[in-house]
Amino acid sequence: MQTPTERAYPTHWEADVVLRDGGTARVRPITEEDAERLVSFYEQVSDQSKYYRFFAPYPRLSARDVRRFTQHDYVDRVGLAAIVGGEFIATVRYDRIDESGLPAPAPADRAEVAFLVQDAHQGRGVASALLEHIAACARERGVRRFTAEVLPANTKMAKVFTDAGYSQQRTFEDGSVRLTLDLEPTERSLAVMRAREHRAEARSVQRLLAPSSVAVIGVRRRAGGAGRAVLDSLRSAGFPGAVYAVNERLPGTADGSGRPAALDGLPAVPAHRSVRDVPGPVDLAVVAVPAAEVDAVVTACGEHGVQGMVVLSADFTRAEQRELVRKARSYGMRIIGPNALGLINTAPDVLLNATLAGRTPERGRIGLFTQSGAIGIALLEGLHRRCTGLSSFVSAGNRADVSGNDVLQYWEDDPDTDVVLMYLESFGNPRKFTRLVRRVAPHKPVVVVRGARHSGSAPPAGHAVPEIRASDRTVSTLLRQSGVLLVDTVTELVDTGLQLAFQPLPAGPRIAVLGNAESLCLLTYDACLARGLRPVDPVDLTASATPEDFHRALGEALADPGTDAVVVTAIPWVEGRRAEELADALHRAAAGTGKPIAVVHLAIEGLDAALGARRIPAYPAPERAVRALAEAVHHAQWRRDAERPGRVPEEDLDEAGAAAVVSRALYGTRPPEPCQGTGQEPGQEAGPRSVALDVPGTAELLACYGITVLPAHPAPDADAAVAAAARTGFPVALKTTAPHLRHRADLGGVRLDIVSESQLRRVYAEFTEGLGTPAELRPVVQAMVPRGVDTVVRAAVDSAIGTVLSFGLAGPPSELLGDMAHRLVPVTDREAAHLVRSLRTAPMLFGWRGAAPVDTAALEDLLLRVSRLVDDHPEIVSVELEPVVVAPRGLAVLGAAVRLAPPPVTTDLGPRRLSAW
Asked: Model pTM?
């Protein structure tokens, strides 16, 4: 039985991390069962490293030392280890101390921390990763400061502390440097952590995409099968590195040497029964064996030192898939797949095609990521038909390990990639994805098509992902706000990618249209209007137009300061002309103008190839060209807005008072204890279900942020209603708060402008006679407020995507039509203004049909206050203000509801860790 000071093993502290060189390690708490592992680790550490750790020669650990370093209570004494291949490569521990430096239990809030890293693994960023994780453990246990003693000569360890980004103090005492770190995350510490995450994850993908040697495991001796197809792809692409074929079923040679016989038709490819038999290093293993055999292959690859794997095999259960990833990471490997199509890198010094697709794309500036192999093949073929090349291609299948987030990290800094195209069926970490896109999109467009996106659609088998409770419309809105260009089909993905990869971004929505067929020009003009663009009158060059006529007209259109882009339309000439002539004429006219063009042509043979060679996108229909151009216009506008994001106003808010209300409602009079962990996977919500804050508590909480809720007085009978009205003053409103009638004036649940006691008694009687008993209706009396527009403001936490602030007009516009605007918090002043104006029904706020415009400034201020409230207090899981009556001057909040819960674990703000889905 555990004593009060003991704690269960904190499984939620276990994590896989990517190190600086792209390899992986497992971080977990040290237990008593690790005694032999610890001794073996210590024996491999150099004498100098031991001296730096203990400030004296310390050749070996005594039995007492081993007990001390392996027995922890996970509160006052905590030890973590970084593990690769089942062996320790580094350790860190903290011991809680008091102000004088002596051991002390909680509530002492400081601890002494010390590291030891095996010499062979120094320089890989192991200590930095361990510091992030031990600091998170310490904060969870109520430790707020770390102290560390470092010898002046131990510059590497001193740098680990100083580079972490925490607030710190440094003193020199008794020949050593004493560092004190404040563990509260700072903007700099979060930036440092994310920069390290970015570099490490990008490096891990780079290792997969640029191997020096590849082993294909599961190659048949004769032609046929997935393994043989990958081997053929590697050879046809011209991969310059070493290639090996592996299959345990290959027969031995007749001379009894044990070497397998040569592959039919491929005598130059070395073939082996196991990857262990390969004489040289293997950077990448492509696995094409039945799922039941993959586990043994992972073990063999790990023991041989393989850096990464592409698993083409399918038909894994979720448990088998999780175990596959766990084992691979334990050896420092990352995995593409399972159920993957493979990898392509067209860099001249790499020329890697480790896929089932035999054709290697031409060199290009587009990076392509897909979760579906079938969609990947279709996209590769579509880009080839459009004469467009790729920089690299990743088809991740079930993306059990390497995901779109990892590849996006790589493409962010890849000098060979200008545009990112992604086909996604699920999001493993949506918060991280939107954060990465905000960082990438300002200089590289990210175009996404989503499969299985509608509410109720389950992700494909094997895609273990967090549940997103928000609607598809909400998620799409939030993705677009982060900079994602969302399209509906894979055809639109290619169309948009071509426009962005080939042409500059337009400065605005003003589009010139010209061509040699008036009907095609008019279709293009209509398509521009349908997409919200501003076309100018089309220019018909007539069917007799020559390439030089196109050149002249396009040059004039591009030179016009009132034009931001041009769509050129063309039909075949009657007498026939070479496509090369037209392509060259258009290219000469557009060169150096800095304005984009798109070409629509009908059945002009060879024009696609001719234009593609000159980096001009061509489309077979006006609607497709205009859609791609509209996405470019929207992206250019997003970039301009991103340069002026606005600010989160510093209001005079009572954060401490609000925190006290929240704490009292959740924990009563006792203060909350430091979280002791739940054992749940990161990202899952912890603690009890949410609780509704009562009416007085809701009013008190909102008042701390300057939000006044108009009191609603209970009226269990007519006399109570009259008494409430007397206190409030006539005129008043009588409302039911029953859920089925709340806010339903159309059903008689709200009566307004009651001016006298007799009218109030009559209305009360009508209420109870027509709608139900007072106990069922739960009537309230409320003062009347100036007439205006009824709106609704909501904020809700979605554990997958973050906290979402929503706004709409109350009643049918939001409930029936779904006309709601959404933003992730915290919201800036510019975003609040856009939120108000982005509704389809927004004209009702600005004087529609002669009505007086309402006070949108007051409305924006309310949105900012709600945003700050939920952002400052993660225990608030939902806020609903309905109705909010916005008048020509001011507004009134007539109803409010708040729900609270202990804050969930948020992996995106914690220490670096790979997804465990």
From this structure: 0.87
Query: Beta strands 691-692 and 271-272: pairing type?
Result: unpaired
Give dist(CA 702, CA 695) in Å, integer: 11
Quote the pLDDT of residue 223: 80
Report phi then psi at 570, rounded to 5: -150, 140
- Would you state the structure tokens that stand for residue 708, as one six-digit string? 């006044």
Closest CA to 336 of 512, 204, 497: 204
Contact between residue 326 and residue 457 where contact means Cβ atoms under 8 Å apart: no
Q: Do 353 and 325 form a contact (C-beta atoms < 8 A)?
A: no
Q: Which tokens in the block code for residue 660?
A: 């006290």
CB 754 within 8 A of CB 763: yes
Q: Are strands 342-345 and 390-395 parallel, antiparallel or unpaired?
A: antiparallel
d(CA 132, CA 82): 12
Q: Please report the pLDDT score of residue 5 as a whole number.
A: 45
Q: Which two tokens stand for residue 54?
A: 């203990």
Give the H/E segment covering residue 275: none
Distances from the Cα of 592 to the Cαs of 515, 588, 665, in angstroms?
21, 9, 65
Residues 122, 127, 128: CA angle, nearest 5 degrees: 120
Question: Looking at residues 237-257, what average pLDDT do you find?
Answer: 77
Compute the distance between CA of residue 808 and CA of residue 916 in angstroms, rounded to an integer: 37
The pair of three-digit structure tokens given for residue 313, joined into one six-digit string? 């095999």
| Helices 579-590 and 547-559, packing angle to 10 deg | 20
Q: Is pLDDT at 352 greater than 90 in this prediction?
A: yes
DSSP 269: S
Q: In whole angstroms, give the CA distance from residue 476 to residue 482.
A: 10
Answer whether 49's CB lies under 8 Å from 110's CB: no
**DSSP conformation class of 673:** P
What residues have CB less than 8 Å from 450, skipping those under 6 apart? 424, 425, 476, 486
320: left (phi over 0), alpha (psi -120 to 50) or beta: alpha
Nearest to 759, CA basis, from 734, 790, 739: 734
Sign of torsion over alpha carbons 673, 679, 683, 686: negative
Distances (CA, A) of 878 to 685, 727, 797, 798, 811: 14, 32, 6, 10, 19
Question: How far apart are alpha carbons 168 and 163 in whole angstroms?
Answer: 11
Q: Are 322 and 368 in contact (CB under 8 A)?
A: no
- Within 8 A by CB and 6+ apart from 589, the residues are 550, 551, 552, 554, 555, 558
Distance CA(564)–CA(561), nearest Å, equals 8
Nearest to 630 by CA among 564, 531, 511: 531
Residue-averaged pLDDT of the chain: 90
How far, in Å, CA of 441 to CA of 428, rounded?
A: 20
Question: Would strands 213-217 and 242-246 be described as parallel, antiparallel, or unpaired?
Answer: parallel
512: helix, strand or coil:
strand
> How much is the average pLDDT of 465-475?
70
Interaxial angle between packed helices 655-667 and 695-703, expressed in degrees from 0 to 180 and rounded to the nearest 10: 160
**Contact status, residue 388 vs residue 493, Cβ threshold 8 Å:** no
Residues 482 and 438 sit within 8 Å (Cβ to Cβ): yes
Q: How far apart are CA 752 and CA 735, in angstroms?
A: 8
Interatomic CA distance for residues 521 and 516, integer angstroms: 8
Nearest to 686 by CA among 700, 672, 698: 672
CA separation for the pair 284, 212 (Å, rounded) = 8
Looking at residue 827, its pLDDT comes to 92
18 has which bridge partners? 24
Q: In this structure, are residues 811 and 743 in contact, taking their beta carbons and an 8 Å threshold?
A: yes
**How far apart are the C-alpha atoms of 288 and 338, rounded to whole Å?**
10
Q: Can you give the pLDDT at residue 746?
A: 65
Q: What is the DSSP letter of 250?
A: P
- Residue 731, preceding bond cis, omega within 30 degrees? yes
Q: Coil, strand or helix: which one is 796?
A: strand
